[in-house]
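Self-study notes.
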Amino acid sequence: MGKCSQKFSHKQQSFWPRLMSIGLLMAAGLVNAQSGNVKPPAALTPTLTQSVAIGIEPVVTGLTFDKKPFQLSSLKGKVVVLMFWTTDCAVCRDQMPELRENIRGWADKPFELVLVSADKRMSDVDSYNAIVSQAVPVKQRFVQLWTGDVDYKSSVNVAQIPKNQLPLTFVLDKSGKVVASQNGRIPVTWWDFIADLL
């Protein structure tokens, strides 16, 4: 298990690791020292439109890669990480093993990871997934959609996001509302923030 997953998967076993984790979050400015409440990490680049701002419930519908109907709104009751990416984005590809570790670490939690490919050609996604399917267990695979599919609809206009700002990632709380957003690499501190939402 990766360093990140070890941190949250064992955090309830002892008081001291939890206390140290809160101390680190305070130092990073993610915990209010007065209340101990976790606040959402700020986006590094504020390129979001009003339709996907903090507090808004985004819309994503379509068919998954395995041809199942999907509605983001059906995941209410779970904490959702929604990530828009492309196969030619090195940062996106580099993030995948960490995302899979979190799926494994939170397998028994109300957590879902949804990936939306903004690749121009489905064949690029198919080629990438053919390689992944040989090495990654089914339990660590993501719900995936493609923006080019005729059934795909979303309030997130990923075409407006420059490629150098991908992945574009949102955290949705259990009510389905965006509580954090990020352009580029997901910061490590997000995983503690998400763990506290579960």
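Second protein, same conventions, sequence then structure:
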Amino acid sequence: MPNHPSIKPLTAAEIATFPKRVVVPLEAPFTDARGAIQPLVDLTMESVVMISSNKGTVRANHFHHTDWHYCYVVKGRIEYHHRRHGESGAPEVVVVEEGELFFTPPLVDHAMVFLEDTVFLTLSRNSRVQEAYEADVERIELVKPR
């Protein structure tokens, strides 16, 4: 278990709120004459970052002990590889399209391969202050860099 003062333990109640599928259905947007507001996530979290990635590159290749994150693809496409930590065999692969939201719970090995230049938002439970992030993440090689 990670040892950092800003990382709180997971609770059964929190785990019960996790989506059951990787790609999370979005609520209908609020629309009026001004435009639209698209709800993404309505939970307590400590970090939101925007990440840009070049076509053909790989990110993640790790798992988190307590952190979870929702990722929203603003632009581009991601080939998302995932499996429960400790399992062997090939990971499941899901292609996440522009405008889709996907979820990674704790203790899931995951990697992202960018099928085109991509920009996505990551909304995370834990702080992304480097010291806290490093206390919770373990790097693996789920997908070999291409």
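Instructor comment on the second fold: The chain has one domain: 12-139.
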